[in-house]
Amino acid sequence: MSYWDWGYYKPKPRIKAKGGIKSQSKRGAFGESWWAKRWIATLESFNIGARLTRGRSYARSGQVLSIDISKGEIKSKVQGSRSTPYSITIKVKTLSDADWRKLAAALSTQAIFAAKLLSGEMPQEIEQAFKDAGLSLFPEKRGDLQTDCSCPDYSNPCKHIAAVYYLLGEEFDRDPFLIFKLRGVTREEFTKLLGATGAAKAKVEAEESAPALPPEPLQADAANFWSGGKLPDDFFGEVRLPPVSAALPKRLGAFPFWRGSERFLDEIEPVYENASPRGLDVFLGESESKRKPEPEPHLARARRNWRRPEVA
Question: Phi and psi of 75, rounded to 5°?
Answer without folding.
Answer: -115, 135
